[in-house]
Amino acid sequence: MQSEFLGIDIGGTNTRLGLVSSKGKIVSSGRLKTRMDAGPRALVEGIFLKAARMMGENQIIQVGAGIAGLIDHRKGVIRFSPNLASWRNVPLKDMLEQCFSVPVAVSNDVNAIAWGEYKYGGYGTENLFCFTLGTGVGGGIISDGALILGANYAAGEFGHTSFEGNAKCSCGITGCLEAYVGNDRLVRKARRRMNLASPLMKLTSGKEITPRLLARAAREGDEVALKVFAQAGRRIGKALGNVVQLLDPEVIVVNGGVSKAGDLILKPIRETLKRYTMPLEGRKLRVMRSKLGDKAGILGAATLAEVLL
Question: What pTM value is reported for the model?
Answer without folding.
Answer: 0.93
